[in-house]
Amino acid sequence: MNLQTNLPPLTAGTLYLVATPIGNLEDITLRALRVLRECDVVAAEDTRRTGQLLKHFGISKPLLSYFQFNEARRSEEIIERLRRGEKVALVTDAGSPGISDPGERVVKAAIAAGLRVESVPGPCALVAALTASGLPTDEFHFIGFLPHKSGQRRNQLESLKAFAGTLVLYESPYRIEKLLAELNEVFPERNVVIARELTKKFEEFLRGKPAELIAVTAKRSRKGEFVVLVSPQ
Ligand code: SAM
What we know:
The protein is α/β, with parallel strands linked by helices. It is built from eight helices and ten strands. Residues 22-23, 92, 94-96, 99-101, 124-126, 170-172, 195, 197-200, 225-227 line the site of S-adenosylmethionine.
């Protein structure tokens, strides 16, 4: 492995995709801090939340809001800034930009405009959950959030039956029960892992068949954030 120890200054006109902690502030990387310190502007999903994160690390930067419903307009503005030679850091509320979070649109626009895009890797719930799940990591399918409508959820799960690797889903605490019930119908014999509150004080991994997990979670707190993984057949 060839690790680079000399740190060149940031490159003008570059979009930096900066991963931020998913619950544990110690997970911010040294490079993320340097990029946030040295960039011209931070494009953030929620400027208030990112403002708090920056404040915690003693960083003061102009913030630009970039979220799902203003992505198109803000992408153009970010591209303009990059064209002027600005260094723009893009962060989301938690984890890696573009993973079930805004980011894809501005990345595509920057590449199409011939601009430079750099990844500043770090926390990502998908990777944290998969690597500690005990399920196969060589082949996996990341689904993110299923649609909200029952019929669409069911169809999507059915369509994943033929996939040979591990399935990885994100789910909110409001729908975790619903998801387990659906998995019990579509994948009753598969091993399922629930990764809850990753990197936080109450992190836990629950493992079992869907019916077993329904019984276990009925007796526990369903609060928090969840990644749900389904083993291959
Ligand atoms: N971009 C983020 C990433 O890199 O993982 C994901 C953002 S998405 C809007 C938020 C979802 O990610 C949560 O609903 C949950 O499913 C998952 N997630 C985020 N943080 C988590 C954590 N600490 N523990 C478990 N799941 C988490």
